[in-house]
Amino acid sequence: NSMDLPPDKAKLLKQYDDEKKWDIICDQEKVIAKASPSFYLRKLKTYLDPRASRSAKRRRTLGDSKSTQVLRDLEISLRTNNIEWVREFLDEENKGLEVLIDYLTFQLGFLRYDKESLTLGSTENGYASPANCRKSILEMDTPKLKRATKHAAKLHMGEAEDDIHVCIMCLRAIMNNKFGFNMVIEHTQAINSIALSLNHKSLRTKALVLELLAAICLVKGGHQIILSAFDNFKTVCSEPRRFKTLMDYFRDYETFNIDFMVACMQFINIVVHSVDDMNFRVHLQYEFTFLGLDDYLERLRSTESEELKVQISAYLDNVFDVQALMEDSETKSAALEQVAELEEQISRSHELENETMAKLVELETQLELLYKENQELSEFRQQADEELNTLRKAVSQKEEEKRQRESFLEGKIQELESLTGTLPKGSTASSLPGAPASGASSAPAPPPPPMPASAPPPPPPPPPMPGCNAIPVPPPMVPSLKGGFVMPPPPPGSMLAPPDAMTIKRKFQTKYKLPTLNWIALKPNQVRGTVFSELDEDKLYSVIDFTRFEEQFKLGVQGAFPDRGDDINSSKRFKVPEKVTLLEHNRLRNMAISRRKIELATDVVVKAVNNLDLKTVSQDCVDILLRDGSQTTPRQRPTVSMRGRRSPWMP
Length: 651
Description:
Number of strands: 2
Number of helices: 28
Strand order of the largest sheet: 1-2
Radius of gyration: 54 Å
C-alpha cells in the first residue's frame, strides 16, 4: 500500500522471490532525490511569470538549461522517486499539478497558433519549420501573442512540441499511482489539456495522449469526463463534428505508426462500447460511422499487425446493426403471430382433452379407492412377511418344533380321514366345504405349526366392498406355537427383492383383457441381484404363442370354450357367469387360484384324499386343502369342529 503501485505492477511484484524483492528495496533506498519538488516548480513558475523576462535576477535563476530539460528532469523524478516525493509535489502547499497544467496550457497556445499558420510557412514535406512558425505567429496582429513570444525567447524556453510531449509524460508518471490519478480526474482543465494535446505533430505523442484518455474512460464516471473533454476540443478547435480531428489523424496519417493506430482503435472501442445505455452506444457508433470509420476499417482488414486486427475485430463484434435488429424484430412479430395460431390450436386440443378427461373421472375415482386398498394390503403383507421370517428362523433353529409340526399334520390327516368317512356314498372330495380345485402347482410353503387349544379360530374374511371388483383376501393367519396368529406365506411372486436397480423392460400389449394376478410388481430398483434381472424376455416372445394364450385366458363370455370334457384343460379356464354358487366372490376366487396350483384332476385328488395317499398328493397340496377347507362362510359351516380337541402330540 505504501508503494501505491497499479494492480498490474503489484501483481508482477508479488511474483518475484524474496531475494529479488530485497534487491529492489535496496535499490530504492539508494535512490536520492536530485532536487526537491519546489526546485522544479520554482522554475516552471518563472517561465509562466510575464515579468520574469524583464528581471535579470529571475533569468539567472533559470541557468543555461531550457524548459524542455527542466521538464525531463521533473518527469524522471516523478517516475523514480518514492511516493512521498510525488505527494509532496501534489500537496496543497506546492500545487504541482496546477503549475504543470498551467505550463501545458501555455505551450498549447503556441501549438494551436502554429497549426493555424502552417499554410503561411510550409515546407516541401507539408510541415512548417519552427522558424517559419515563429515568424507566422509574430506576423499575426495579436499583441498578447507577440508579448508571449518575446517572453519565451528571453527565458530560453524550448520548442512547444517538445515541452508538450514531456508534460504529457509527466502527467502519465503522476497517474501511475492512485493518489495522482484521482487528482487528475478531478481536474477538468487537466483532462481538457490532455485532449487538446492531440494537435501535436508527433504520432508518438498522440498515441500517449490516447492511452491516458482511454485509462480515464474506463473508471467510474470517466466516460462522461472524456466526452466533455472532446466537446471542449470541438469548441476550441472549431470542429464541425466531435471526434473529426481524431478521425482525420487516424485515416490520413503521413507516416505509418502502428502504435498510434492501435492506440486510436483501442480508444474508439472503449468510448463506444463501455456504455451501458444501448441507445447512447448506437449514437456514439453513428458518430464514428458518419466520420467514415466503417469504410476505413474495411480497408484495414488486410493489415499484418495482429494487435490492430484484434482491436478491429473487437469493434466489429460489438457493433449494433440497427437494420438487422429491425429485420429480427419483424421476424419475431411474424413468429409471434404463428405462436398465437398454435396456441389457438392447443386450446382446442385442451378442450378435447378436457372432454376425454371428464370421461375418465369415474375410473380415476375407482382407481383411487383401489390404490388405498392396495396400500392397506401392502402394509398387511409387509407385516406378514416379517412375522413369517421370524417364524422360519425359529423353525430352522429348533428341531423340536419341527417334530411338533409333523405331529400336527398327522392329526389333521386323521381329521380329514374321519371327515371323508362321514360323506354319503357317491360323494367326492370336491363336495367338502373348502375343498380345493385342481390347478397349477406352486412353490412348496412351510406347513403351519400346531394350533394351541386356547387359541380361538380366525374370523371369517369380510365381504367385498359394494361397487368394487372383488379382491381375494389373504390366506388365514396360522396359529403360532406360543399362542396368537402369524401370517401364512405370501402368494408366489410377492416376495420383495433386494433394493437394487435394473433396466425397464418393455410391456407386452395384449389384444384382450386378461385376468389380473393378485401380486404387486417389483420396482426396477428392487430386482437387481435376483434371477429376474438375468431373464431375457425377448427370447420368450418368439417361443410362446401369445395369441393362443390370450384366446384361452381372455375375460368375458367370448372367452368360453366349447370343449369342456378335459378336466385338466377346464381347470385352467374361468367359470361361466351363469354358474350359480353360494360362495362369496373372494372365496370363489381363492378356490380358483388353489385349483390352478394343484396340477391334478378332481377325481385324482378325491381318490388320494380318501386313500390318504401322500405320494399322489404332495404335502404342499395338503396344506392348500387344509387352508381352503378350514375357512368358514356365513352360508356354509364345517361339519366337524376342531375347537376343544387337543392333539396328544401338542404341548
